Amino acid sequence: MGYRIGIDVGGTNIVAGLFDEDGNLLGKSKASTIKTSSAELLGQLASLCGELLEEQQISGRLLAAVGVGLPGFINSETGLVTAANLPLQDNPVAERLRRLLDVPVTVENDVKMIVYGESLRGSGQGLSHVLGVTLGTGMASAWVSEGRLHGGSGGLAGEIGHIAFTDIPYVCGCGMRGCLETVVSASGVARQARDGLSSGWVGLLADRFPPEQREELTSKDVWQAYQDGDAFAGQVFQRTAYWLSRVLVPSVALLSPDVIIVGGGVASAGEVFFEPLRAYVAESLHPLYRERLMIVPPSLGEDSGLYGSAEYAAKRLIV
Ligand SMILES: [Zn+2]
Question: Is 126-299 a CATH 3.40.50.300 domain?
């Protein structure tokens, strides 16, 4: 066993964390994502690792593994990575980074790594069956059962944001119409609010965003309006909870998780979202599920993905 580094690569920022062999976070390093070319991006990841080791005065020889989480699709058979918001197209990221750092490297989808981290050290700690969902720019989920992350055939398990419903009218970024993501992601919450205002809702949110400024409205503005007492803003979160429950209910019946961890920008709205979510999920489930199921926010903040990718690399490469 040895030290390991977890890296969370986002479209805007990269955060890397150095962990000791017991999985304790020793230090972090953050930088703006370089998106000019894959070579420069991989060079940046390698330099962040070097900086972290230097800061903690740890020799590179003691580094045992590096895990990377990024917003993209990783072909589980070939290891090739494609990420729309990064300069990566069918790119062998793990192999290239391994050559730069001279240590074993794993690369996985960022949401899977966030949920894996939460299952080990966060809200899922001590629980065997953890379903995690993130509601950020998009929507995705991951399933960790008895310590194992399940990717399914082709590594495609978890894309519940792209389940289409006939009563959702919006076209998704993926090209399909009616995807759940178009209403429950952060941009989906903003979209629901904009549509509600256009159909005549009045109140604080309507006053703050007259028609000519409506395109600028974000999910944070909806939350702020709710905090300030706007009834319509509260209804948007309630509606979002309802939509999410429509995929969580069958997921619970199929998987029987101990806990569902719901994170991302929308979930940070707190109880205005979680309370109706728990109620909607409960009302459609058999009591046997209801009695044991918890639906909670994550507890590691922005570090979930660091813990996840570092531990994932350690378990896959060191043991
Ligand atoms: Zn879609």
Answer: no
